[in-house]
Amino acid sequence: MLNRYQKISEENYKKLLAYIGHIRSAGLAFPSHNGKVNKTAVAVACGFNRETFDQNERFRDCLAAAVTELGLQIEEQVASDKLNSADKAQIARLEQQVAALRSENLELRRKVKRYEHMVSTGRRVIP
Q1: Which of 22, 43, 64, 83 is deepest in the core (most CB within 10 A)?
Q2: What are the domain boundaries of the chain?
Q3: Which UniProt keywords apply (predicted)?
Q4: Distances from the Cα of 118 to the Cαs of 54, 104, 106, 111, 125, in angstroms?
Q5: First to last CA, the chain
Q6: Which pTM value belongs to this model?
Q7: Can you give the three-state secondary structure of 18-59, one letter per residue?
Q8: 81 phi and psi, to 5 degrees?
Q9: pLDDT tens digits, residue range 4-45?
Q10: What are the pLDDT digits (tens) for 48-63?
């Protein structure tokens, strides 16, 4: 007779096997991070905690065997910090627009403040 924790463990193990079966049938590889299997992504896809792989040797061994069989996805290098010159020019132009709009906004706020004073006091303020 299984207790409730063992039942949950069995359900999670079945989910892991189903996930591995899905990866195998789709011809995919496991997600990777820094050259290792991304256990968090696998656990989220299976619907349980990442710590399950650290706490349960059966899960860890099953995942290791599947990774050996199916392999890892190659991480795509994102070169977001290397902007080309067109992007840099657009950024500079947009920063100039923002500065111009901020100064215009400040001037309009001053005018509104002056007009609010005129309406509340009934007196005109000469700048």
Answers
A1: 43
A2: 4-70, 82-127
A3: Coiled coil
A4: 71, 21, 19, 11, 7
A5: 89
A6: 0.57
A7: HHHHHHHHHCCCECEECCEECHHHHHHHHCCCCHHHHHCHHH
A8: -80, -15
A9: 888 988 999 999 999 999 888 888 888 888 888 889 989 998
A10: 989 999 999 999 999 9
Name the one residue in this structure whose structure tokens are 């902007």: 83
The pair of structure tokens assigned to 50 is: 């990442």
CA distances (Å), 95 to each of 54, 89, 98, in order? 48, 10, 5
Residues 61-66: contacts with CB under 8 Å, at least 24 apart? 62/13, 62/16, 62/17, 62/20, 63/16, 63/20, 63/37, 63/39, 66/20, 66/23, 66/24, 66/30
Distance between CA atoms of 64 and 20, rounded to whole angstroms? 11
